[in-house]
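Hi, here's the filled form for the chain we discussed.

Project: internal
Contact: R.S.
Residues: 145
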Amino acid sequence: MSSSPILSNEDLLAQNVLPKAGTPGVVQDSSPPASGGGAAPNSGLSGFMPILMMLVIFVPFFLLMSRRQKKERVARESLKKGDRVMTNSGLVGELVEFDDALCRVKIAPGVTVQMVANTVTPFVSPVVKGESKELKEAKAVSDKK
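And the returned structure, exactly as it came back:
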């Protein structure tokens, strides 16, 4: 079994290998290489940079996501029977039953579906510019039924 020296990453990255004498286009420096054989002075910081970059990217993302989830949870907790709701898939209906895990939503006369409660949010009608007065009245009448 042969014994080979174990080299660290710093030894491998900071090797001072000089080109062979007589290589065209290379000027030979007669001064000896810097003693110590260590890496660059800021090498400790270079190992920390990837971790720092991940923190810079993920911390704001995490904060925004938690803020959004809190808003959705508060809106979901304010739901009660008879509210108009929209599911994540885009179905709009009337809330019939609601508990922590499951809910029942009436999406058409005689059609009630059961779904996960986390997929339901309060429905807010989109504002359409230039909507006619007759269309607004028709919507108001249909909502009362």
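Let me know if anything looks off before we file it.
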